[in-house]
Design a protein that fits this description.
Arc Repressor Mutant, subunit A; Rossmann fold; seven-stranded mixed β-sheet; 16 helices; globular
């Protein structure tokens, strides 16, 4: 009852609208369907809800009050009737939320494009965007490139249950709504809703020199006992397997299929004999680099530069090695010119001035951490960019990720270099930064990787003989935008 009343006070359940189905509402409140049914009966008797047995339940045209419920009108007279001055985007938001909760838009599915939403809800584009922002705040939708996707609404107990193991800092950032380079938890939730399966999420952290599960943890057993309700596990890792000794040891006790989302590269289980492991690299193999190199070669770029400030990390080295090997196979053994500096000492004094036209680090407010970090990275990369621009034979720049590509694009534009006429620019990650700046970038196909990880867990449960541990490479694709084009010939023509 308190859950429904608080929802009415916050506007989540608006006066005159239908409540979600009993099964969904009980999951949202964390109670059983029987408990939720009893609560609705009491609230109907008090006039707060309306609707006959077997029909949809509507929020009545009177507000709830905290204590006692009979004094509702005195406590919240403003909420009895929807305001005639209600903002249009809030009205659209309520309509879209009701459509999501009523199943018009299924969990995990993509919402129509903005143009179609404008027609369906008879609203302007800016109104639709404001409504989507409110839906995003309530975690009912998640951004997916040109679309919004309907997020998982619950982890109902129906169907197989899969344990999801993820680093605690990623879990905390996700709970706070922070942007991450690989929003893998969001993708896991969307895929789980689409299949559908239930998931139980647990975080692990670095403690006393070992990665350990955060306590209490209901996903993995403490001893050799097997969780009978778990079909298997998906683990998102960003360090070598030996760093996860405790985690691997506990997984070995379970003897159920495990899909590893490898954000480090070269991940191999410590005890593969007792485990159905499948490792899915996420942008940490040489394959993306080879595809990028072949794409540039097809455009006539025979001399390229590769930039990184993360080259001590395996994922950066693997991307470079992929580009290098593809150029060697094509008859260019010198490969790309490597420009890198160690990220261990990339702090730049604030008084160092960037190129004219670029922001000055000393005048950037400290609160703008992301902007300051980008400026600092640009300053740190500036000498490398200067060296490369002095080499006229180089016609393409490849950067280890989109963050470096943004700095490179700013540098080239300030220097008056035609992109892509003089220099083509391409990167990896296909992040929001690349999309907004129209940078050609390699998309790792995270939806395909996560989907394959789920399939491994579910199919392995039905196999009579356990397959060997294996690495599964899911191909991505290059998203061409405005920073890539054909190389100039010696006469200056493209």
């Amino acid at each position: 009852m308190d859950f429904i009343c608080r929802g009415m006070e916050s506007g989540r359940f608006a006066v005159g609208e239908y409540l979600p189905a009993i099964s969904l509402l009980s999951t949202m409140a964390g109670v059983s369907s029987v408990t939720m049914s009893k609560a609705q009966v009491i609230l109907k008797n008090r006039g707060i809800l309306s609707g006959l047995r077997g029909q949809k339940t509507r929020v009545a045209n009177r507000p709830p009050a905290p204590e006692p419920l009979e004094n509702a009108e005195a406590s919240h007279p403003q909420s009895a009737v929807p305001s005639s001055r209600q903002e249009t985007h809030e009205r659209i938001f309520r309509q879209m939320r009701r459509d999501i909760l009523d199943g018009v838009y299924k969990p995990g599915s993509l919402l129509p494009l903005a143009k179609q939403l404008k027609t369906r809800y008879r609203a302007a584009g800016i109104t639709i965007r404001k409504a989507l922002a409110l839906l995003h705040d309530e975690e009912l939708v998640a951004p997916q490139r040109r679309h919004y996707a309907v997020a998982r609404l619950s982890t109902a107990d129906s169907g197989p249950r899969i344990g999801v193991l993820i680093q605690q800092y990623s879990l905390d950032a996700y709970d706070l709504g922070a942007a991450t380079p690989h929003n893998h938890l969001s993708e896991i939730e969307l895929q789980a809703a689409t299949i559908p399966v239930s998931i139980s999420v647990a975080g692990f952290d670095w403690q006393a020199g070992q990665w350990t599960m955060k306590q209490p943890c209901s996903v993995l057993p403490q001893d050799a006992a097997v969780r009978a309700d778990m079909a298997g596990y998906i683990a998102a890792v960003s360090s070598p397997a030996e760093d996860y000794h405790d985690l691997c040891a506990r997984l070995a006790l379970v003897k159920k299929p495990v899909s590893v989302l490898d954000f480090d590269g070269g991940w191999m289980p410590l005890s593969p004999r007792n485990q159905l492991y499948a490792v899915f690299p996420v942008g940490v193999s040489s394959v993306p680099g080879k595809k990028v190199a072949n794409f540039l070669l097809s455009l006539g770029h025979h001399h390229t530069a590769f930039f990184s400030v993360f080259h001590k990390s395996r994922w950066s080295r693997m991307r470079y090695e992929g580009v290098r090997d593809a150029y060697a196979d094509a008859g260019y053994p010198d490969g790309p010119q490597l420009f890198w500096r160690s990220q261990d000492d990339w702090q730049v004094p604030a008084e160092v001035s960037p190129q004219p036209g670029l922001p000055n680090l000393s005048t950037t407010p400290a609160a703008y951490d992301l902007l300051r970090n980008r400026i600092q990275m640009g300053l740190y990369l500036q000498p490398l960019f200067e060296q490369a621009i002095a080499m006229p034979a180089i016609t393409a720049w490849v950067t280890a990720n989109d963050a470096i590509a943004v700095c490179a694009l700013e540098f080239l534009r300030v220097r008056g270099v035609d992109v892509p006429g003089r220099i083509s620019l391409i990167s990896f990650d296909d992040s929001v930064s690349a999309m907004t700046r129209r940078i050609t970038s390699y998309n790792f196909n995270l939806p395909g990787i996560v989907s394959a990880a789920f399939r491994h867990v579910l199919r392995s449960n039905h196999q009579t003989q356990a397959p060997r541990s294996r690495t599964v490479e899911i191909p991505g694709t290059i998203v061409e935008r405005e920073t890539s084009g054909r190389a100039r010939t010696q006469t200056g023509e493209r």
